Amino acid sequence: MSKQAILICDDDQGRVEDWKNRLELLKIPFRLEGLAGQDLGTAIAELGKRRETSRRSGRQAATAEKHQFDAAAILVIDYDLLNVDPTSGMNGENVAYLARCYSDCGLIIGLNQHDRENFFDLSLKGHPESFADINLSADQLGNPGLWREPWTGFRPWCWPLLPAAAAALERRVEGLTQHLDDSILEFLRFPAEAISSMPRSTIEYLGGEKSPEKTTFRDFALKSSMGLRGRDKIRAETRMARIAAARVGKWLERVVLPGQDILVDAPHLASRFPSLLRGDTDKVATWNMSASLFPPKSLWSEKAQLRQKTAGHALPEENWLSRAAWFWGEVRKIEDIEEVRNPWSSERSDFVFCEDVSRFHPQREVREFVADLASPFVRRYVIDTNACSNRKLAEALREVNYRPKVRFSI
User: Fold this and answer.
1) What b-and-e string marks burial along 213-252, b requiring 16 or more CB atoms within 10 Å of the CB?
2) Given this model, what pLDDT does residue 213 score?
3) Distance between CA atoms of residues 54 and 219, nearest Å
4) Which residue, among 344, 333, 323, 193, has the nearest Cα to 267 in the 3D structure?
5) Which residues does 212 contact at the CB level (< 8 Å), separation at least 6?
6) Residue 385 neighbours by CB under 8 Å, 6+ apart
7) d(CA 176, CA 189)
């Protein structure tokens, strides 16, 4: 049965109702439910019982009843849960861990753990260690750009579209149940060159007991720094598949993809090879065709051979990333691409991709920053609010907390 509910959890019923009201205004295709106060405390305690049962027997208790979290397509958890039980030390991150490992919930959104304001992370590193699949501030939960295309205004490119991401997670879980002992990189069909060029910081997340090529989904769930903690155990294959599907998905999204050097998505690929684009590259609309999580099939050059060769180097496994992506090491060798064949002949475009609004803008209206990534492609762009010709956009972006600001001055 498909999950259709968004479950919002906080220690304060008033905040739960406020967040539900914000999402109702967006008319998203989910049933909105809330869990707060003592009821939330009881739900957390039930997950703790599941954990203890699993530790003792290695199995889910035969008498285990269904939990409120099990039916949630999207689980939203606030970080500060002090009023649930002031003596427990329980917070949203701990609940996210219990939910991921001991419930059948779908996508997990963690609120307010790292910033309570509307923020943009200039490091682009995110928080891969968090058991929330996406970390936001409460101010961002109602941003329409999280829920649908097209979007306008502030909308970080690293965000997925949540309805699509929730559906993709369920498909990953379903497809992974019979492949837990497959090598992750072989299953995802990473080329040998992509594996060998991975930075140490990326490989370390796979765990140190095996070579990266041999690490399986089960290994990742049980032994990596992104998997089960301490003495915790899981034997149920479906639960193991859910942990692996979520955690490997986050590794791809927040560790592998941000550098744009192992995998490269459409707008960053277009920035490097403008000749791939179909249409007039003197118009920003042509560039923004690539700035979509679902770029149209008509995006790339009309040359059939070039389209086929490029498509052949895309990440072949669907549902593992929130957007189309290509193996950079393979694409950069395609001699049919003008910029590969004649690297010194191409002209630099006036348009650059802005990570904070997920759109291309003229270079005179942007500000460069240096991301904190182990990649040669660390120079990125955001809107310069003092130079942006769209005054409404500029005013809105002045309310965003860009941090750490030292990234602007490197």
Assistant:
1) eebbbbbbbbbbebbbeeebbbeeeebbbbbbbbbbbbbb
2) 87
3) 18
4) 323
5) 185, 195, 198, 203, 206
6) 394, 395, 397, 398
7) 15
Report the pLDDT value the prediction gives residue 1, as an integer from 0 to 100: 40
**The two structure tokens encoding residue 236:** 């149920």
Per-residue pLDDT at 58: 54
CA-CA distance, 36 to 15, in Å (whole number)?
A: 9
Residues 394, 217: Cα–Cα separation, whole Å: 44
Stretches where the chain sits below pLDDT 50 are 1, 61-63
The pairing of strands 366-370 and 379-383 is: antiparallel
Interior angle at CA 101, CA 70 and CA 374, nearest 5? 120
Architecture of domain 5-156 in this structure: 3-Layer(aba) Sandwich (3.40)
- The amino acid present at 405, given as its one-letter code, is K
Map out the domains of the chain as residue ranges.
5-156, 172-259, 263-408
Predicted pLDDT of residue 238: 93
Q: Judge whether 183 and 213 are in contact, CB under 8 Å.
A: yes
